[in-house]
Write a structure and sequence with these properties.
463 residues; alpha/beta; Aminopeptidase; Glucose Oxidase, domain 1; 15 helices
Length: 463
């Protein structure tokens, strides 16, 4: 027993030394994160950057002059912030234009007309004048397929499936209702319909129609597709029950023009120890054309730039290269994300992680992570460091649309989506109400600091 005592003492001493070292590391990291949050809350620049982007430039649909202005602004802003290198990545993007304001009316048997709030879905064809037809209401594609041909042919198909408000995460409800917006026009045209009317993807009851991208099948006739506000959808549904023979009149002048040249904007801080290892953080610079693109995704753009600025402002030189990327064309094509991934693969780059902010600039909760269990476990150790800032929820989930193409192109160890409190997000998502006044300064700056903190940890410890 006596001979075992020295060995036991050595193991105990080694364990104590390791614990002391871990404590010092945790203290160092804790102080570093505190400095990041102090800088963000006392001297943060996200809010004023967003004010300029939304107020001076405004909506930034791909292919528009405003999108090009945003590219130039993003490049200049990162140069002024002192990034080591700022450059553009050329990418061809779709150029869809809405045209004159859309008009829609419910027409009863006696000719009474009721104007309703609606908007064209992104990518839709126009109506070539006024389009007037009967209406058939469905809640699902399966219900549509079961209807007899005579009930659908020559009519508008009205897709009226609402958000499932029993779901805790509105994003899940958005995903489950989204097929009718994305593919409703295709399914309607397959049955001989003349157009598609889609309930806006939100649980809010108001007269703000929600646009968003839709698609066509080359093998199926293209028919116009419009989103009704939720109040308009409720009204149409109610009137159809009383009068199944009513008609709907739609007029839209939207069209798709030839592709335009645009750019991703990339700002880079070179790593001090492992410059070949890259951490990407980004949001999408384009937005829909109805509002100012504030929460979607102006907040993600300014947070991504600010996350890198915060590291510099607090004296931290990242060990791994950090890139802030302002992606172009997430809303109606994801051309920027695809091109960024293509170039990363072409240049044989090593990306250890990519972070995206595209869920609004609301109060931080943490991050959604696409990765293997071992990486998730490693990141979970950082939870206590993020806990004082309420950004410590590290859960399995979707990383983001812009960074998604990296998954196959260069296989980063983790795709990470910034997770803010999303309960209010889909009230204004893709609407005229997505404006600067809906963004809270503290919530926005806290989000940027949360992202900077995760980048600090990723850069220091790797994955």
């Amino acid at each position: 027993m006596a001979s075992l005592a020295p060995a036991h003492a050595q193991r105990a001493a080694k364990a104590a030394k390791a614990a002391a070292t871990a404590s010092r590391v945790d203290l160092t990291d804790s102080l570093a994160l505190r400095k990041i949050f102090d800088e963000a809350l006392l001297r943060g620049q996200s809010y004023e950057n967003l004010r300029y982007l939304t107020g001076t430039i405004g909506a930034r649909l791909s292919g528009s002059p405003q999108a090009q202005q945003a590219v130039e602004w993003g490049k200049l802003t990162m140069e002024k912030a002192g990034f080591d290198r700022v450059y553009l990545q050329e990418v061809m993007v779709p150029h869809w234009v809405r045209g004159s304001k859309e008009r829609g009316e419910i027409v009863g048997n006696k000719g009474k007309e009721i104007k309703v709030a609606l908007c064209a879905l992104g990518g839709s064809v126009g109506t070539n004048g006024k389009l007037k037809a009967g209406v058939v209401e469905v809640r699902s594609f399966d219900e549509l397929r079961k209807l007899p041909e005579a009930a659908v042919k020559g009519k508008f198909v009205f897709f009226n499936r609402p958000f499932d408000d029993a779901l805790i995460e509105p994003g899940t409800a958005y995903g489950r209702a989204g097929d009718q917006r994305r593919s409703g026009a295709i399914e309607a045209a397959k049955r001989g319909a003349v157009g598609a009317l889609v309930r806006s993807l939100t649980s809010a009851r108001d007269d703000n129609p929600h646009t968003g991208n839709m698609s066509y099948d080359p093998a199926v006739t293209k028919v116009p597709a419009a989103a009704l506000s939720t109040l308009a959808a409720d009204q149409l549904s109610l009137l159809l029950k009383a009068n199944p023979g009513l008609e709907f009149e739609l007029q839209m002048e939207c069209q798709t023009l030839p592709d335009e040249k645009s750019y991703n904007v990339v700002g880079e801080i070179k790593g001090s120890k492992y410059p070949e290892q890259i951490i990407t953080v980004g949001g999408h610079l384009d937005s829909w054309d109805l509002g100012q693109g504030a929460h979607d995704d102006g907040t993600g753009v300014v947070q991504s730039m600010e996350a890198v600025r915060l590291l510099r402002a607090t004296g931290f030189r990242p060990e791994r290269t950090v890139r802030a990327v302002l992606f172009m064309n997430e809303e109606n094509g994801n051309r920027g994300g695809i091109e960024y991934a293509r170039l990363a693969a072409l240049n044989k780059e090593t990306h250890i992680a990519a972070i995206e902010s595209d869920g609004g600039g609301f109060t931080p909760r943490g991050f959604n992570v696409e990765s293997e269990p071992a990486i998730m476990a490693k990141m979970a150790v950082w939870g206590p460091l993020l806990q004082p800032y309420h950004a410590n929820s590290l859960t399995a989930g979707h990383g983001g649309t812009d960074i998604g193409p990296l998954k196959e192109a260069v296989k980063p160890k983790a795709l990470i989506g910034y997770d803010g409190d999303s309960q209010r997000y889909f009230d204004i998502h893709h609407t005229a109400a997505d404006t600067f006044d809906k963004v809270n300064k503290r919530e926005l700056e806290l989000g940027g600091a949360s992202m900077a903190s995760l980048i600090y940890l990723l850069s220091k410890y790797g994955l």
